[in-house]
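[[Local backbone shapes]]
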Amino acid sequence: MRSSPNHSPEITGGSQPPLKLLLFIDKRPSSIEQLRRIRSQLKNLKPDYAYDLTVVDVAEQPYLAEHFKLVATPCLIKVYPEPWQTLAGSNLVNQLIACWPFWQQSTPDCLTQSSTGNHPTTSSAEIFQLSDQVFRLKQEQEALQEQLRFKDRLVAMLAHDLRNPLTAVSMALETIEFSWSLENELALETREQLMKHARTQARVIEQMITDLLESGRGSLAELQIQPRKLVLMSLYQEVIEPLITRIKTKSQQVKIDIPNDLPAVYADGEKVRQVLTNLLDNAIKYTPAGGVIKVSMLHRTTQKVQVSISDNGLGIPVENQKQIFEEQFRLPRDQDQEGYGIGLALCQRIIRAHYGQLWVDSLPQQGSCFHFTLPVYPT
């Protein structure tokens, strides 16, 4: 059994105390004062037999509080000799004085048991150790169950969300194949559009699978990056191209502010592509029809480039602006929306792996602006 770091067990007399007490406290000044008074009173009682007082901080050992079914602190428990006896309330010292004579009367039996080698103190120590193990096993079980529930949700959502892009790819390819089977080829421009659409949807599927695989590795897994010289303007153009159809469908506008002299960054192109895709996808999703999406990049310092993507959607409540970067977190309003609750958490991991920062500025009903930084490519 562990004791509070600030309070070690107090033992007087022999090495096997016939009276064992546990005092549960918290960090409130009143609780600390009760501890001081109880220690002082035990010294004043001057027992002619050994006792052991162990102080337990409930914040550090909650499983023991659960084991003894405590409802309040401070609380003094006589765990040996059995049966257990619990004293609680603001007058612990008075209760201790009243109970002490009865506890003294129970010690001769205890000493007799001790002489035969059957000292229940050992059993108490085993109980504490088992309680500790049970508590930790419960924590591990809850974590594993939550992971299983999350994976079940991912599988269900993935099966649903993959259906649309797969159908689009299939229809485009079938149309081209059908025209060839009739020896009546589509116009070159139409065929190119269908192939482009199929490639776009294939990238959507690839992105979904990539995000899921990265998330499945867990937030504690090390993210492997392969940084190199990267031109953000070129990467942005590659990312925005397959999203143009969705933007036009919602009659949205995209305004960019990317200076021509923006320096290259030192980053993993595929990982940064994931970040840009996720943030732009969210901007399109939450910007209303006819709304405006803004993309800006600036040389923030000699060592950092900052990328900002903003929308004029519903915004994010202030109390949730840190939580949105946590694994599996979704705003209550988005529970019925498509998505996995992993995109922003994955973006956070990627940017941190580049020693950058990712954050959001947002006001309800006024939109959100996500910013992230990347290191400048050394020259």
